[in-house]
Automatic annotation (TrEMBL):
Keywords (A to Z) from UniProt: Oxidoreductase
Gene3D superfamilies xref list: NAD(P)-binding Rossmann-like Domain
Molecular function in Gene Ontology: oxidoreductase activity
Descriptive protein name: Retinol dehydrogenase 13
UniProt source species: Leptosia nina
InterPro entries: NAD(P)-bd_dom_sf, SDR_fam
Length: 295
């Protein structure tokens, strides 16, 4: 679907969920292209295995890992603190996400799926924006999904347990990602930072279905195996969004199959995207504007 021969030597890229699935494939493609790649996820054993494999096949020694648990703001803040030691950050790829998680609250008192898919990515991006700004031109790439079209955000109840089924809470989290990405585009105009989303559609041979029940997993896997994309293709799409010169100054756009795609209709409503931004900051106890935000 995508083809870019652009080299990204000297660039630093973070990709969450980089130890497996499409995140691993994207990390591998970026390493082939010369980037310094930092893969992030919860499981250190998987991270070490992924790092070693990417280094081996790409011959790029500049592949490292850091542990990151998006279900813990303590972990997100610790990760961001470690990244501040980097000289630059050219691309942040918020790829990690999950479906079928247990319907419970995290240690931070938020719905687990909402935090893993949205709140954690929001906080991570917010904390890393100064480094992205100082490294500009830089790019933020957020993973979305078609479920966003049926999402609904009720700020009084978006973290309720027992209110939403697994599809509904996934849809809500992905709608939040779409609106968040649009507001980033609004806020970051003229900073040299771009913000775009991509929908990987359904992808074969990943562990995204592991949290589903046996019946749900088997039925969904049958569908995915029939119509899903190879994960390598989606990895190439992420590489295109992260590295292609054609993406320079392209922002506020949603991609699918490596083409501009129909975004959620609410992304163009500045009142809606601004409200989400403020409600999220309030929930995350971000009480004052950061210096970059004030400017």
């Amino acid at each position: 679907m995508c083809d870019t021969k652009t080299r990204v030597d000297g660039k630093t890229v973070i990709i969450t969920g980089g130890s497996s699935g499409i995140g691993f494939e994207a990390a591998k493609s970026l390493a082939y292209s010369g980037a310094k790649v930092i893969i992030a996820s919860r499981n250190e054993t998987k991270l070490i295995r992924a790092r070693d494999r990417i280094q081996q096949v790409t011959k790029n020694p500049n592949v490292t890992y850091k542990q990151l648990d998006l279900a813990s703001f303590k972990s997100v803040r610790s990760f961001a603190d470690e990244i501040q030691a980097e000289e630059r950050l050219d691309v942040l790829i918020n790829n990690a996400g999950a479906i079928g998680l247990s319907d419970r609250l995290t240690e931070d008192g938020l719905n687990l799926t909402m935090q893993v898919n949205y709140f954690g990515a929001f906080l991570l991006t917010y904390l890393l924006l100064p480094l992205l700004k100082s490294s500009a031109p830089s790019r933020i790439i957020n993973s979305s999904a078609s479920s966003m079209y049926i999402g609904h955000l009720d700020y009084e109840h978006w973290n309720d347990v027992g209110r939403y089924n697994s599809v509904e809470v996934l849809a809500n989290s992905k709608l939040a990602v779409a609106l968040f990405s649009a507001e980033l585009d609004n806020i970051l105009k003229d900073t040299g930072i771009t913000s775009n989303t991509f929908d990987p559609f359904v992808v074969r041979d990943t562990n995204i279905l592991d949290n589903l029940t046996d019946l749900g997993r088997n039925l969904t896997k049958l569908f995915v195996d029939m119509v899903g994309q190879p994960k390598e293709d989606v990895g190439e799409e992420i590489l295109y969004l992260a590295a292609s010169p054609e993406m320079h100054n392209v922002s506020g756009v949603h991609y699918k199959f490596c083409r501009k795609w129909i975004n959620h209709w609410l992304v163009s409503d500045r009142e809606v995207t601004s409200e989400l931004w403020l409600e999220t900051k309030k929930l995350l106890n971000i009480t004052s504007k950061a210096e970059w935000e004030s400017n």
